[in-house]
Every structure is written in structure tokens, then in C-alpha cells.
Amino acid sequence: MSEFEMQTQNQSFSESEFTGTAMGVFGRKLVILICFPLIILTVGLVGAALAIWFQKWIARNTYISGKQLEFEASFVDLWVKKIIWMILSVITLGLYIILGFYFVAYQKWITRNTRIAQ
After folding, report:
1. Partner of 46 for a Cys bridge, out of 22, 38, 61, 66, CB 3.0 to 4.6 A?
2. Is residue 78 packed enough to be buried (19+ CB in 10 Å), middle (13-18) or exposed (0-12)?
3. Chain-centre distance of CA 14, in angstroms?
């Protein structure tokens, strides 16, 4: 057995888990679906608020090495970022979304706003 294998065998890895339920996701998705007309009427304002609400639920139900995550994000920050991402999508004729740049930018924003709770 190599030295690396022996070291990794001796390490104790804490489990990470997600404690949310399918009904929790279903209920949140149902609220988002019901609010869809408001999302359109408010030019995404309600959509940004719902996205933050959903991410906070995910973080509250996620534990890394036994420590709960928390999601701290500004509604205004997300709304401004979404406007910028929409403009980039229009300028690039949709390539910003099609090639995955939007997804990466959104995931980076989520990660920057997620922390281990104190």
C-alpha cells in the first residue's frame, strides 16, 4: 500500500448532506409558477426575489462537514446582474446563454454568496 493510500485511509471524512424534501422543492416551484405573471409584469423583480428565496432554502438544508450553509445575497445585486446578463445575451444573439456563459456566471454568483454559517 502506498503512503498516499495509507494517509487517506487514516483520515476521517465528515459527511455532507442535503436535508430538503421533494415536497419542499415542489412547493417552492409551485409558488414560482403561480408568480410567473408577476415576474413578467415586474421585469424580473419578483423573479430575482424568488431566486434568492429558493437559494436560501437550499443553503438552510445543506450541511458540509456537519456545518450548515447560509446564503446571503442582495436582491438588487442579483437584479442588476440579471439585467447585465440579458444585455450580453441580446448583444451576442443568444450565444451568452447557449454556450453556457450565463450558467457559469450565475453559479459563480451563487457560490460567492454562500457561506458556512457561524
Report:
1. 38
2. buried
3. 23
Distances (CA, A) of 62 to 44, 85, 86, 96, 100: 27, 28, 30, 30, 25
Residue 20 lies in a domain: no
**What's the grid cell of residue 28?**
417552492
Number of domains in the chain: 1
Report pTM.
0.79
Q: Has residue 1 been placed in a domain?
A: no
In a domain, 4, yes or no: no
pLDDT in tens, 52-82: 999 999 999 999 999 999 999 999 999 999 9
